[in-house]
């Protein structure tokens, strides 16, 4: 058996602000969207080999009611390694910073933010200098 890919699915009240966040700030493309009336129920975002999915709570309620209650217990924490932390910080201008830029004991320079869906994202660069 070979694991070919692991993709995070983040559950949120509204998918649209999260799509906008990753597309406008970090150059992701929305490669699949599932509408639910005038809202999005689901979106798959991709940039190169990196993939991220968002699904609305309302969609989860319809799709898997027992599971949807667990999805509300979040938030989720993502750790994203980047090659240029300063460019990343510029791209996230205006996002809520929850962990100011710091250097860790394991050699990463990091900054942590909250995405529009309430999930925490730590961006890290190894070998960077403050």
Salient structural properties:
globular, 2 domains, 4 helices, four-stranded mixed beta sheet, Signal recognition particle alu RNA binding heterodimer, srp9/1, 130 residues, 2,3-Dihydroxybiphenyl 1,2-Dioxygenase, domain 1, alpha/beta
Write the layout of secondary structure elements.
Elements: E1 8-12, H1 16-26, E2 29-36, E3 39-47, E4 50-56, H2 57-63, H3 65-71, E5 77-81, H4 85-91, E6 96-103, E7 108-114, E8 120-126
Parallel strand pairs: 1-4, 5-8
Antiparallel strand pairs: 2-3, 3-4, 6-7, 7-8
Biggest sheet strand order reads: 1-4-3-2
Largest sheet: 4 strands, mixed
By DSSP (H or I, 4+ residues per run), the number of helices equals: 4
Structural class: alpha/beta
Q: Provide the CATH superfamily of the largest domain.
A: 2,3-Dihydroxybiphenyl 1,2-Dioxygenase, domain 1
Task: Write the CATH architecture name of the largest domain.
Answer: Roll
The radius of gyration over CA amounts to: 16 Å
Broad CATH class of the largest domain: Alpha Beta
The general outline is globular
Uncertain segments:
none
The separation of the N and C termini measures: 42 Å
Helix content: 10-25%
Reading the helices and strands in chain order gives: EHEEEHHEHEEE
CATH topology assignment of the largest domain: 2,3-Dihydroxybiphenyl 1,2-Dioxygenase, domain 1
Summed over residues and divided by their number, the pLDDT gives a mean of 94
Percent of residues in beta strands: 35-45%
Give the oligomer, counting copies of the same chain as homo and different chains as hetero: single chain
What's the number of domains?
Answer: 2
- How many β-strand stretches? 8
